[in-house]
Amino acid sequence: MIIDVTVPQLGESVSEGTITKWLVREGDVVKKDQPLFEVATDKADQEIPAPAGGRIKALLAKEGDVVPVLKAVVCQIEEGVTEATSAPAPAKAAPAAAAAAPAASAPAPAAAAAPAGPAAGAPAAPLATPSGRQAALENQVDLSRVQGSGDYGRISRADVLRVAQTPAEAAAPAPAPQTAPAAPAPAPRAAQVAQMVNSGGGFVPPIPGVGYGAFKVPPYRAVEGDKVVPFTRRRRITADHMTYSKVTSPHVVTVAEVDLHKTSKLREANKDRYKKEGASLTMLAFVVAATARALRENPALNARVLDDAFVIFKDINLGVAVDSPDGLVVPVVRRADELGVRGIVRSVDELAKRAKTGKITADDLSAATFSVTNPGLKGNLFGGAVISQPNVGILRMGEIQKRVVVVESDGEDHMVIHPIMLLALSYDHRVVDGVAANAFLWRVTELLEKGEFDV
Questions:
Q1: 315 within 8 A of 404, measured Cβ to Cβ
Q2: Helices marked H in 53-204 — which ranges?
Q3: 450 φ, ψ to 5°?
Q4: Whether 241 is catalytic
Q5: Which among 142, 315, 323, 433 is annotated as catalytic?
Q6: pLDDT per position as a tens digit, 33-87
Q7: 261 assigned to active site
Q8: 413, 418, 429, 454: which is the annotated catalytic residue?
């Protein structure tokens, strides 16, 4: 029996993955759950196990191919065959073979459901990101004339917009017959404005590495001693995400000063007990707990924007930024408002350990409804973080410093030294107004200053 292997669903909103490495060859005998290949998505990198034991009949995708989840067949296994073959393996087929192989034994509708490959002699479909394909549709750009700048020549949104904003004669086919003298070709900025007007308005963003309007980025000229560091895949995804967020969401930053005197005393009284249990009671856990409670009382920040509406989520799933070998990742503490400080400590510790050992999964990184970020021990006074899309808010912790503050006792003011931290809230002004944002941040501050947590 031949078993078709596809890329499984690897988390919410993940629609495709890149085959980064094959761990088997055609003719190899594999056991059930043995890793077959590595796949990279916008969320995480994972090994995909064999659904059954048998012999690898065919590898139908090459390393570097981008394939849709659950649809394209990337590998076939002869179930139950225990004898390996040393026959020369045919050349690894492109995704077209994934559609052609099942077509021989499946009815026509099944073949139509698989991704159709190019006909013999026809050019292969351009390799592009989902945002790149969307930009091509929006700007009526033929992907076949776009030079991709990503891995394996993959076309990004920026690549498409770069072509869309070139002078009209560089992209247009044959010009229409003219009855009057031809006007000079529009300048790039004029083409941008025309495109904006024709599409009903909207903002035309700058092109990274190219410029905006009359401003052009000067070319890089190598100097001895310079070190050029290529973008890793993770860095490229982060760069695209942050650029998209800044262009899409009108960021507003508001800051609150928090007196952590009571919460710090509570932490000091309990941190040794947590340490004996193998856990670390950090200030981050208290901030996450206060954030979850404040979101339950101020749900406007626990939302996302749709095309012409927005949704307020029922569950409070907090993304907590942690470091990993490939850079910063944001695993998710699910239903954080139901956990309390102890549950949050355990969740954050477990997710941080998986991130540092490279074992974080796409599910661990999906479905966040709000984010909290902590700059760590070598932080700074405060900073406005970029919103993690599609959230509408992110809370950034600042450095904790001992400062002189004024407190009231028995009707009199006294100067004392307390630990102080600045919390900065970045929020999306498309759907979050200042009143809602300030109410949320005020409540987080109040909870931390009262220090009334169950630990």
A1: no
A2: 95-103, 108-113, 130-139, 157-164, 168-171, 188-198
A3: -75, -30
A4: no
A5: 433
A6: 899 998 887 667 788 899 999 999 999 999 888 888 888 899 999 998 887 776 4
A7: no
A8: 429
